[in-house]
Each structure stands twice: as C-alpha cells, then as structure tokens.
Design goal:
Layout lengths: L5 E10 L6 E11 L4 E5 L6 H8 L7 E9 L2 E2 L5 H7 L4 E4 L3 H4 L6 H12 L5 H14 L16 H13 L5 E5 L7 H18 L2 E5 L3 H7 L2 E6 L2 E7 H6 L4 H8 L46 E5 L2 E4 L18 H9 L1
Parallel strand pairs: 3-8, 3-9, 6-7, 7-8
Antiparallel strand pairs: 1-2, 1-4, 4-5, 9-10, 10-12, 11-12
Helix pairs in contact: 4-5, 5-6, 6-7
The structure holds adenosine-5'-triphosphate (ATP).
The site of adenosine-5'-triphosphate (ATP) has 13 residues, from strand 2 and helix 1.
InterPro entries: AAA+_ATPase (IPR003593), ABC_Ni/Peptide_Import (IPR050388), ABC_transporter-like_ATP-bd (IPR003439), ABC_transporter-like_CS (IPR017871), Oligopep_ABC_C (IPR013563), P-loop_NTPase (IPR027417)
Protein name: ABC transporter ATP-binding protein
Organism: Solirubrobacter phytolaccae
Length: 340
C-alpha cells in the first residue's frame, strides 16, 4: 500500500467561547492515500468543516489547535503563514460550497485561471497557461468556447465545475471539497461527483469529500470516516461501512438516509451534544440504542474490526468490559442523570 500523502495524528481544534472552548475536532487520526477519495460524514455541527479546514491549515483567527497534520514530513499547522499560503493551491486545494462567492463577477473565467497559474506556476508561458486551463475546463465538461465569458453567464452547476477546475488546474496532492454539490440539483451533483472521481484518478489527487449525502459516499468514495461530536467514531472502506456499519452511530445515520428503498423515515433520537461540555465517556451513549453501562463511564478504545477498518465502540471490545458494566444502560436512569 502507498504511503499516506497526508496523516492527521490526534488532531484537536477548538474555538474560544465565553462559556468555554468549543471542541470542534477532538482527537482525530486519519490518513489520506494518494489518489483516494475519503468521505467525511456526520450530522450538522459535528466538526466536519473544521476538520477540512485544519487539513489545509486554513483555520479562522483565534482557533486553537494541537496534534499534527503531516504532509511531506512536516506538520503544516506549525508552518509559517507565508509558507502555508504558498502551498495552498498548488499542493493543498479546497473546493467550497458556494461558487458565486468565490468567483469574481468582474473577472472573465480566463482571467481567473491565468491569475492562479501566474501566481503559482510563473514559469508557464501565457500559451501554456491557457492550454492547462482549457484542459482543466474540458475535464469538467466546460466547452473551450466559453473561456472568455463572465461567471454570471454560467449556470450554478457550471460555476461549481469551473471552481473545481480552478482548484485542480494546479494539480494539488490533496483537495478538500466541503459539500461541493449541496446547492445543486441531483443530476448535476451526480455528474460532478463522477468527474471528480475521474480527475483524481488521473492526477493521483487525494480527495477529502465532506458531505451529508451517504448516497454520494457509497458511489464516489473509497473510504469513509464517520464523525460524531468532534471524533471519528468509525472509518474504513466505503462499501463495508455503507452496507454493514459496525458503529451504532454509523448504523443510525445510515438508517436516517432517504433512498429508493426507504419505506419509513427514521431519525436518530435526541440531538448532537454541545461541544463545550460533551457527554463523558462515549459521546454517543445518550442517543445510542445499544448503550451499556460502561459507555457512560469509560471512553471506548478504538478497535480494528477488520483489515483497514476501525471503530470506537465498546461493542467491539466486550471482553475488556468489567463484570456487570455490560448491562444495558437504563434510559430512565440516563434521563434522571441528565436532569440532575
Ligand atoms: N469560526 C467559528 N467560531 C466559533 N465556533 C465555530 C466556528 N466555526 C464552527 N464553530 C463551531 O464548531 C462546531 C463544529 O462546526 P463545523 O462547521 O466544523 O461542523 P460541520 O459538521 O461542518 O457542520 P455543518 O455540516 O453544519 O457545516 C459547531 O459547534 C460550530 O458552531
């Protein structure tokens, strides 16, 4: 297996708040291999975007961090801002959700590409830069005849494809795509996801795809990391996790996804916890249908449930649970504890 192009080790990111720190990412370890797409899924507010920004060192001012984001033998979180800025684009790319806010309405598409290439690849001649841009656009299904047009002359789906082409024209080693297709209709979404899959194969780009849509994960990702309350609670091959989730949270998340075979709508009871003071021990225990007494008392260890697959749940290390603590957690007891 190839060496990872990027490795997160015990990554922690928090935001200062008056009531205490919001621990948005709280001890995440994850590898990205060259050319693979890893889907990052989880309910709103669990820390996906924060993790995605941490991966390319683009954290808001005031955010604290600890742990490592290793890229080419260096922790990018420790780099000088200038060095990091120079890496962002040619080595670490990011695709955001709303293309209109990122494309300058007064600049033609050609100007956008030529500016980016001039900054990061100054040795390219104008003609070479133009050819590179055309190639990237063609890959995204945008005809070269439209190269000199302005952003408003394109549909939302096309603008998003232009943004993706702009991120990929520099052939970065790692791209973080944060909900890149959420604002688009499903057909355009499927098309973009297919094109993204082709492109990363061609350029060996590792893609971290943040999404709410588990259907996309099953279709487009090699691996998936399921996030809950700042932690990655399960990670492994996308097919295995979307067909046979081993963490109760992944299972519940999958059950609450609408698909063609959906006969009734399921929602996970309760709400995700407050990240200022999350529940002790396993953070999912107050909502978990399988919770045992140990889950409210001790942090679960991460267990390799099969090759390449890890799950942070006591269900997978039952032999280590002290006697009696494997009894089901009583819901009434839980509610009373929460009231107190
Ligand atoms: N700049 C910020 N300052 C303070 N708190 C923030 C900031 N950005 C995010 N947060 C908080 O950090 C937590 C994680 O947010 P984040 O946006 O990373 O989650 P998410 O899983 O990407 O959510 P969504 O799917 O809704 O985008 C939330 O509690 C959020 O309110």
């Amino acid at each position: 297996m190839a060496d990872p192009v990027l490795s997160l080790r015990d990554l922690r990111i928090w935001y200062g708040a008056e009531r205490g720190a919001v621990r948005a990412v709280d001890g995440v370890s994850l590898d990205l291999l060259p050319g693979e797409t890893v889907g990052l899924v989880g309910e709103s507010g669990c820390g996906k975007s924060t993790l995605g920004r941490g991966v390319i060192g683009l954290l808001p001012a005031g955010a604290g961090h600890a742990g490592e984001v290793n890229y080419k033998g260096q922790n990018i979180l420790e780099l000088k801002p200038k060095r990091l800025r120079a890496m962002r684009g040619p080595e670490l790319g990011m695709i955001f959700q709303e293309p209109m806010t990122r494309l300058n309405p007064l600049m033609k598409i050609s100007d956008h590409f030529e500016e980016v290439l001039k900054i990061h690849e100054p040795k390219l001649s104008r003609k070479e830069a133009r050819n590179r841009a055309m190639e990237a656009l063609r890959g995204m299904g945008i005809p070269p005849t439209r190269y000199k047009q302005y952003p408003h002359e394109f549909s939302g789906g096309m603008r998003q494809r232009i943004m993706i082409a702009l991120a990929l024209v520099l052939r970065p080693a790692v791209v973080v795509a944060d909900e890149p297709t959420t604002a688009l209709d499903v057909l355009v979404e499927a098309q973009i996801i297919r094109i993204l899959a082709d492109l990363r194969r061609n350029f060996d780009t590792a893609l971290l795809l943040i999404t709410h849509n588990l259907g996309i994960v099953a279709e487009a990702c090699d691996r998936v990391a399921v996030m809950y309350a700042g932690r990655v609670v399960e990670q492994g091959p996308a097919y295995d996790i979307t067909t046979k989730p081993s963490h109760p949270y992944s299972r519940e998340l999958l059950r609450s996804t609408i698909s063609l075979s959906t006969t009734e709508l399921h929602s996970i009871p309760g709400a995700p916890p407050d990240l200022v003071s999350p529940p002790p021990a396993c953070r999912f225990h107050p909502r978990c249908p399988d919770a045992m007494q140990i889950c409210a008392q001790q942090w679960p260890t991460t267990v390799a449930t099969s090759p390449g697959r890890r799950s942070e749940c006591w269900l997978h290390s039952k032999d280590q649970i002290p006697k009696g603590l494997d009894a089901p957690l009583e819901r009434e007891a839980l509610a009373a504890a929460e009231e107190a």
